[in-house]
Design brief:
There is one protein chain. The protein is an alpha/beta fold. The protein has 29 helices and 31 strands. The strands form 7 sheets. The chain has an 8-stranded mixed sheet, with helices on both faces. The radius of gyration is 37 Å and the shape is elongated.
């Protein structure tokens, strides 16, 4: 027994798993589930000689949990309890409990779908809803249903709707364990802004150290803020006898241990951590939490194909998890850098990663598994269709799947590598080109944190500078190398080399580096725009900008490895030069030759070119004197689709015709009526506009087309007759003049007319055989608005006399009869009316 709250339900957990293949355990942080449950279940009869695999979402938590369980058994990690994480494995033939990170489980399933020798898979901290945890559970449920009905699954969570997961797992039983926590006093403060997080946190920590006793755990969004706060705290004169420790995933193991262990010799400590410390870890001696209220979260944008880290507000569940760390061992305090009133605006839960993630790796895993439709599996959250489609398009461009959406041999090789599909494609192709070790170095540099420290000079944009510095083929040009990160890159590169089956080489040529990188980012090959230093057009269609003073800003071609920012043009943070020859060599199958036409905006002439292109980047263009007229047509149609009908400079008669036709379709309820809205016209350009483009070679000629006549010819004889009869362009007034009907509102046509021209008319003018009365905008002799009505007879009877009193004084030369119904309609002054009578 461990003396933890989980102990009371351990027999029940073992019994339920003996009776059921699946189980859900709800237990708050501090209950002891991570270490207590696996150790207790080791002795279960149903487990037999099989082992337990336990999934942890983070490397630090996996290593710490395995070490703690080994300590409880009086052993070292790698004996009864071991772990497998990226770049580190400690297991042996004796190992019965393996704590693994999530990608490791997926690879185990791919290599052995039956999970031979595994009796139980535990999903710890499932409430974090990581992408790999969702995928791992979906695959394990399929294995359980189709191959291994004896495989048991246990989902453990601190904050989760257990019933929802239970339903997913065929109504699995749910066990709830009480936690052991002490009261935590929540104290709110003024709101901190993103840009001020390091300064506000450092000040608050300083204040708390003066006012309270005990060690502090401070939550910050990321490594940058942690280092800044660490620097600010060390510079403060009033802080003495306090050890400050950072804590994040990429920190060396020795430094992680220092952050977790108790402070020695009666000292206090301040641990500056990312959200990694929310769950799984118990940090000894913590009594106080200082929470900035932000976290760093990856967000995938399907429109750009990019994943960016965004600093966002924590959810209420995360904020409560953080606060609870102060009450693990004794009553505690939590300081929140936001007002209490703002709590209601926080999301209840963090969104599952699958809703916002790049799904390329997940889709490749499923295709290799044999599943092409995500709905064939059981998911807590089904992968979004837009992100799925984006992933399929990327995998197709990388050669991982064919045009029938089946995984290729190349794709199967890619799926066996522990990297994103982009980098896997580069690694597999790099090996074929005898540049496997260079590809491994590049992949490691792109995977791990930057090997350059932020020094006095600006960190270089050029990836090749990093390759040179890492391989000692060039000096670092004044940039300081981070020795720990260099070691991490070396370890990662060697891991990739082992998985790829290549040997590290002391001598190799970096000349192909840019070409290799372009394999990973075929959609981010950039060509320098003409007369625009630092501005590039990307093969994926977007724009990208490099600082004008950067040495890469004037290179003809770059491959962008790190870009950010919203909008049409992204900011480039890291890139590498690639030659046109390299692009042609590595992307020969993607280069398309075609005839095209473009509009010369200055001359207004359509120019013909024969081009070679990769995506939206033109590699070569040769002028053609007499371009094919069909190609000119297609370019015109493309321009109109992109810029709208306004490009054709339509006149008022064209626009009036369109409105008449729209109104006729609405009011006459014609099902077969053409759509003359802008969207409708653009969707049918091929039908109505294309036949009139046979001799158009200039913008002037295009804009000289009589669009009204073209559209009228698009209507058959019966429709034109119906339109003219029922929805006329103009109607005759009592004066004999013809006034244009305004169809701007298709449901309520308008007639603007001077009031005097309707004298003697008792019935409101109408269209559509009298079924649609017009809305009259009655005007003064100077065509100023007087009255709006759809009831002319009512106007004469009730309103006219008030209008007459006002207008008679303002327009004395005009005719204002006492009885408008028997008066002569006119558009003239009284003097001109008399002349006309003579």
């Amino acid at each position: 027994m461990t003396g933890l709250p989980i102990d009371s339900v351990l027999p029940q957990i073992a019994q339920k798993l003996a009776e059921n293949p699946s189980l859900v355990l709800q237990a708050p942080p501090g209950a002891g589930k991570t270490t207590g449950v696996p150790l207790h279940l080791l002795g279960s009869d149903w487990l037999g000689d099989n082992k337990i695999i336990m999934l942890e979402p983070r490397r630090l938590a996996a290593r710490t949990a395995a070490t703690r369980m080994a300590d409880l058994l009086g052993e070292d990690p790698g004996e009864t309890v071991g772990y497998r994480i990226r770049l580190e494995t400690k297991v042996s033939a004796r190992t019965k409990i393996e704590v693994v990170t999530e990608g490791v489980l997926t690879r185990m399933l791919q290599s052995d779908p039956e999970l031979s020798g595994v009796g139980l898979v535990i999903f710890d901290e499932f409430h974090e809803r990581s992408l790999q945890a969702d995928l791992g559970l979906a695959l394990c449920l399929e294995v359980q249903a189709a191959l291994r009905d004896d495989l048991r699954l246990l989902v453990m969570s601190a904050t989760l709707d257990g019933q929802a997961v239970s339903r997913l797992m065929d109504e699995a039983p749910v066990i709830t364990s009480e936690g052991r926590s002490f009261p935590v006093d929540i104290r709110y403060g003024r709101e901190t802004q993103r840009k001020n997080i390091p300064f506000d946190m450092a000040d608050k920590i300083e204040d708390v150290l003066r006012e309270e006793e005990g060690s502090i755990l401070a939550f910050l969004p990321g490594v940058g803020e942690i280092k800044r706060v660490e620097s600010l705290l060390k510079a403060k004169q009033g802080i003495t006898g306090v050890d400050v420790y950072p804590l994040y995933g990429d920190l060396p193991m020795a430094k992680q241990r220092k952050a977790i262990e108790p402070a020695g010799n009666g000292k206090r400590k301040v641990v500056l951590a990312t959200s990694i410390a929310e769950t799984s870890l118990t940090i000894d001696g913590i009594k106080i939490i200082v929470d900035c209220g932000f976290r760093r979260s990856p967000r995938f944008d399907p429109s750009s194909g990019l994943t960016r880290l965004e600093t966002i507000r924590v959810s209420r569940a995360s904020a409560d998890q953080r606060a609870g760390r102060a009450g693990r061992l004794e009553p505690g305090i939590c300081y929140r850098l936001w007002p209490e009133a703002q709590n209601g605006a926080l999301a209840l839960q963090d969104k599952p990663e699958i809703q916002d993630a790049d799904l390329s790796s997940l889709v490749l895993e499923l295709l290799n598994w044999g599943t092409s439709d995500p709905e064939d599996l059981s998911w807590c959250t089904v992968p979004p269709r837009a992100a799925w489609k984006q992933a399929m398009e990327l995998l197709r461009s990388l050669g991982a799947i064919d045009h029938s959406d089946h995984i290729t041999d190349h794709g199967k090789k890619m799926s066996g590598l522990p990297v994103h599909p982009r980098l896997a494609h580069m690694l597999v192709t790099g090996k074929k080109e005898d540049a496997g070790w260079l590809a491994c170095i590049i992949a490691a540099l792109l995977t791990e944190r930057d090997i350059f420290q932020q020094g006095t000079s600006k960190t270089p944009t050029d990836l090749l500078v990093r390759i040179g510095a890492f391989t000692s083929k060039s000096d670092d040009k004044g940039f300081r190398l981070d020795s720990y990160r260099v070691k991490q890159v070396k370890r990662t590169a060697e891991q990739y080399a082992r998985a790829l089956g290549v040997k590290p080489a002391k001598e190799f040529d970096t000349a192909f580096a840019g070409g290799l990188v372009s394999l990973a980012y075929p959609d981010r090959i950039g060509k320098l725009r003409k007369s625009a230093v630092g501005r590039f057009k990307l093969s994926g269609g977007k724009g990208a900008e490099v600082d004008e003073l950067d040495p890469l800003a004037s290179k003809p071609y770059l491959v962008m490895t790190e870009i950010g920012g919203a909008g049409a043009s992204a900011r480039v943070y890291q890139a590498i030069e690639a030659s046109e020859n390299q692009i042609r060599k590595f992307h020969a199958k993607s280069i398309v030759s075609q005839d095209r036409v473009r509009l010369d905006d200055l001359k207004g002439v359509f120019l013909g070119e024969k081009v070679e292109r990769i995506g939206e980047v033109i590699l070569k263009a040769i002028r053609v004197k007499e371009p094919d007229q069909d190609v000119i047509k297609q370019e015109i149609l493309t321009l109109v689709r992109g810029k709208g009908i306004a490009l054709l400079e339509p006149d008022a008669d064209f626009e009036h015709l369109c409105r008449r036709v729209i109104s006729a379709g609405v009011l006459a309820e014609k099902g077969d009526w053409p759509d003359f809205s802008e969207a409708g016209l653009i969707s049918t350009l091929e039908s109505w506009l294309s036949p009139y483009l046979d001799e158009v070679t200039t913008l002037k000629a295009l804009q000289s087309l009589n669009l009204k006549d073209i559209l009228l010819s698009f209507l058959d004889w019966d429709k034109r007759q119906f339109l003219d009869k029922n929805f006329p362009e103009r109607i005759e007034l009592p004066t004999g003049n013809r006034a244009r009907v305004n169809y701007v509102d298709p449901k309520l046509p308008i007639l603007e007319v001077r009031l005097q021209e309707l004298f003697g008319l008792s019935v409101t003018p109408s269209i559509f055989g009298g079924r649609i009365p017009l809305r009259l905008h009655l005007l003064s002799p100077a065509r100023r608005p007087l009255q709006v009505t759809s009831d002319l007879a009512g106007f004469w009877a009730n309103t006219y006399h008030d209008v007459k009193k006002d207008m008679k004084g303002r327009y004395p030369r005009h005719y204002w009869p006492d009885d408008p119904l028997i008066a002569e309609p006119t558009s003239k002054t009284k003097k001109n009316m008399n002349k006309a009578r003579r």
